[in-house]
Amino acid sequence: MTALSRTFFGWRVVGAAFVLAVFAWGISFYGPPIFLQVLHASRGWSVSVVSGAITAHFLLGAAVVANLAALHRRFGLVAVTRAGALLTALGLLGWAFAAAPWQLYLAAPVSGAGWAMTSGAALNAMVSPWFARRRPAALGMAFNGASMGGVIFSPLWVALIAGLGFQAAAGLVAAAAVSVAWLLSGLYLGRTPAGIGLLPDGDAAPMQPATAAAAPRTADAAPLANPWRDRRFLTLAAAATLGLVAQIGLVAHLFSLLVPPLGAGGAGLTMGGATACAIGGRFLLGAAMPPGADRRVVAAANAGMQAVGSVVLLCAGPSVPLLLLGCALFGLGLGNVTSLPPLIAQVEFRPADVARVVALVTATSQAGYAFAPAAFGLLRDLGATGLSISEGVLLFAAAALVQLASAGVVLLGRSLSSPIRLRPLSTPSGCS
User: Fold this and answer.
1) Which pLDDT value is given to residue 220?
2) Closest by CA position to 108, among listed 122, 130, 92, 121
3) Sign of CA dihedral 282, 286, 287, 289
């Protein structure tokens, strides 16, 4: 690594995005499964009612994601990120202090809006302006913060709630999240490469022919007039939605299903271990995927691996080793489900259209997967014979089928799409 790449400000932005993702996913993604178990066990609220509030949390956030680019243009990345942290904190307190189930449905829109402003599309907006050729590595590092959020917060929530109670734990985490987001946003998110005299990737010299050949490739396509009539967009959005439906539906219930065989502490550690596997999965993907690889094939393989994990969980019964194996296989693909769609968009659409495509894919998939916690909650109630892993039989079967459907759709887009002429990824004059 050169001295220039070590000091390039873009990597500091990646570091800030990583930390922000730790809090965003730790609170808004990996928190609700813990909250479901706590509210069900301590207040006697039904799984399906709390699952419905989790669905509202994700669904109402989808409307914000669809307009996130406009919010960034109007108010700026710093202000929107800080607002997202504040809304996340307020929503979290609403979940903790709810005295009746209906109050969860007042907290859900607030927490959902905060999640939208600090999650996938927001991370892409933070990192993408700084990188072109190195964008896969940069986004992968930033999204590893999402996985680290699960590693840290899954067991941390269990310990804090056990030691302090839900309300005090929520207040502590909310204060930390707002403080960190406020500081990092001001320090790192208010700048652009052009504003400090840099080019994407930290390049300062004219592009050399040798490096141009190694650059990523992108579609030589016409401007994206209507994404809803573009087969590449439709299959990408559908595959992302299906993959996240399976993922969110399973994650929302996995902790409480693991509590009977593993105990609360063991279940929290297992959830953390699954998300640690997600970090390993991203590193494996980065190491194994060559620059010219078909990223749709990679996405299909990732979904297939998660389907295998779901089948192992389906067959595990009370076997702890099989439960851990299933969680590990599911976890290896956990992070790639969110980081692969922006990378597919990068090579299939013009650079000018990528941000729009990513925002629409994120909004569409969030609107779809928002229903997963409630739908999987109904499946769980159908299979319930008391709070035990047997409740998860229908969940695991449904997750495996949906993951396989995601793999098929993403490959279908590859075969249905018109031939795409590829050219080296365009970069500003003077990039190397």
Assistant:
1) 54
2) 92
3) positive
Global pTM reads: 0.74
Angle between helices 9-28 and 166-188 (to 10 degrees): 160
CATH of domain 3-424: 1.20.1250.20
Q: Choose among 237, 12, 17, 240: nearest CA to 123.
A: 17
**Segments of the chain with pLDDT less than 50:** 1-5, 205-215, 218-219, 222, 386-389, 417-432
The pLDDT tens digits for 214-252 are: 445 544 554 677 888 888 899 999 999 999 999 888 888
Q: How far apart are the first and last CA of the chain?
A: 14
| C-beta pairs of 257-262 under 8 Å, 24+ apart in sequence | 257/380, 257/389, 257/391, 257/392, 257/395, 258/323, 258/327, 258/389, 259/37, 259/387, 260/387, 260/388, 260/389, 261/318, 261/320, 261/323, 261/389, 262/320, 262/323
Is residue 316 a contact partner of residue 326, using CB atoms and an 8 Å limit? Answer: yes
Q: How far apart are CA 123 and CA 14, in angstroms?
A: 9
Contact of 181 with 85, CB cutoff 8 Å: yes
